[in-house]
Amino acid sequence: MISLPFLSRVLALALGLASTVCSQNAPPARRPNIVLMVADDLGFGDLGSYGATRIKTPHLDRMAQQGVRFTQGYAPSSTCTPTRYAILTGEYAWRATTKKTGILDGDAPLCITPGRRTLPALLREAGYHTGVVGKWHLGLGDGMVPVDFNRDIKPGPLEIGFDYSHIIPATVDRVPSVWVENHRVVGLDPADPIEVSYRQDFRVEPNGIDRPDLLKQGADAQHSGTIIHGISRIGYMRGGTAARFRDEELATTVVQKSTAYLEAHQHQPFFLYVGFFEPHVPRVAEPPFVGTSQTGVRGDVIQQLDWAAGEILRALDRLNLAENTLVIFTSDNGPIFFDGYRDGSVEDSHGHRPAGDLRGAKYLVYEGACRVPLIARWPGQIAPRVSDQLFSLVDLPATLATISGVTQPMESNTDSLDLSAVLLGRTERNLRDHTVLHGLSNTLALREGDWKYIPANASKPVSGQGSGANPSDTRFSANRITEPLLFNLAADPGELTNVLALHPDKASALQNRLQRLTQTHTRTSQP
Ligand code: NG6
Ligand code: CA
Q1: Is 103 touching ligand 1 by the criterion CB < 6 Å?
Q2: Segments of the chain scoring below 50 in pLDDT
């Protein structure tokens, strides 16, 4: 006869074994949902929590108070496509040799190879549902044949790791001015097909050059293509009339689609990537925000952005998800006032400094071009604090992979460092000692510790008007870099005094390291 104590011991052993097996396969106890919100051209000085006074951003400021606010967070590039490429792949965009990763037009092919272990693909491996809403700007289609917006549009987000997408293809200032949900243009009438060209006008719809009288905002030649709802865009399109978005509804659509996504996937781990459109051009505020800031339409749309982010945070509260959701807010590159449309942003700035005390603007490699707001909130896991630790957005894949319990490591040649200990406040050390910064025309610079090195380059001065700490810096041509520059950011955060002649050894050490970094294939180490 089997005794009862023996039976119970066998049972206990079996149960114990079963639970060991379970816990090995089970994800970590607290695996957060992740919402990554990326603004478009929002500068280091554009939020209240980063010093803005003429723009009110109460929702993002509250988020900053509840979480960690980084003062040394970097977009790896100073334009959209390459930064977003780095966020999704963990690789600096300037390393990509087979794909175009510069600012893409609306008919450009997808710049990320399907099958790659992207950030959403990693999270999907870990059991997350993955979604993207808003700005895409990473190309669509395979590039073998021109993308046809009247059929299934692929490859795109769904082929590189997202389970759901509701996006506009490129920028609001580039055609086609439509939403694409999963593989299809939203609201397209098959009897009115879309055609897109970046080479020639179809001459059936008005453009900005011939019909300036139809425009809500004047535009430069580059932005004087087809007029869609009173705004001339870059490029030409015809057809798809019923599918064309209205600029005054973009933010509301982002909020609606994001909150619908949260509702639909609240019962499973999810990753939602939200690409806000503000404050990129064309800047058209929704009616409740018109004239609300003290710094013109650019300020108004930043307040609209703050509202939209607040609505997503409110949805998390309402669905009882806030506690177990890691929310990250950042921007893809630094700010700019004039970027093609005469919307009054320069005249109405009233002393607002979108890059704060930093020099430069979008497109460049100065601090104001790449250093961006970076805020992360995860109640109970991230203690409220301000961090001066270095963080680059290229670190998001490795960092979020660890936080979400991805067991397979990233590719060994990634640029992405696992900074989960930094993000969660488990170390006060700087786990990243340097970061490479990338501007238009493939200009590169190196930040290492307090030092910043910018090689001389012959890049063409970009047209446009930015804003930095130095008033003489507002014309981009003033930013042409004709000699190598060395700055000590601790003493000179505004990058005003070139100290290269005083520290030639430091400059050549940084020059050599930048060269090694651009040539090396082992990127996880800090060569
Ligand atoms: C530039 C556009 C600019 C903006 C930018 C992309 C011109 C002269 N300027 O080429 O208006 O669309 O591309 O911005 O065409 S980004 O933030 O998406 O990178
Ligand atoms: Ca941008």
Answers
A1: yes
A2: 1-28, 467-477, 522, 524-527
**CA of 41, closest atom in ligand 1:** 17
Q: How many residues does the chain have?
A: 527
Ligand located closest to 331 CA = 2
Domain ranges for the chain: 30-186+246-423, 434-519
Which of 217, 233, 280 has most ligand 1 atoms within 8 Å of CB, for mutation?
Answer: 280
Give the ligand at the shortest distance from the Cα of 281.
1
Best of 78, 79, 105, 441 to mutate for ligand 1, by most ligand atoms within 8 A of CB? 79
Q: What contacts 82, CB < 8 A, 6 or more positions away?
A: 76, 92, 93, 94, 101, 102, 438
Please tell me the predicted confidence (pLDDT) of residue 458: 54
Q: Cite the beta strand spans of 227-336 per DSSP E.
A: 227-228, 231-232, 236-238, 270-275, 325-331
Q: For the structural domain made of 434-519, what CATH number should be given?
A: 3.30.1120.10
Q: Is the CB of 105 under 6 A from ligand 1?
A: no
CATH 3.40.720.10 fits 30-186+246-423, yes or no: yes
Ligand 1 pocket residue status of 331, Cβ below 6 Å: no
Query: Per-residue pLDDT tens for 404-431?
Result: 999 777 777 799 999 999 999 999 999 9
pLDDT, tens digit, 9 for 90 and up, residues 40-99: 999 999 999 999 999 999 999 999 999 999 999 999 999 999 999 999 999 999 999 889
Q: Does the CB atom of residue 464 touch ligand 1 within 6 A?
A: no
Nearest bound ligand to CA 40?
Answer: 2
Rounded Cα distance, 231 and 186, in Å: 20
Residue-level pLDDT at 503 = 98
Q: What pLDDT, on the 0 to 100 scale, is given for residue 20?
A: 36
Token output for 7? 């039976």
Residue 243's φ and ψ, nearest 5 degrees, are: -90, -10
Tokens 């003493």: give the residue: 491
Residues linked to residue 231 through DSSP beta bridges, in sequence order = 228
| pLDDT of 378 | 98
**What is the model's pLDDT at position 97?**
83
Atom from ligand 1 closest to the CA of residue 40: 17
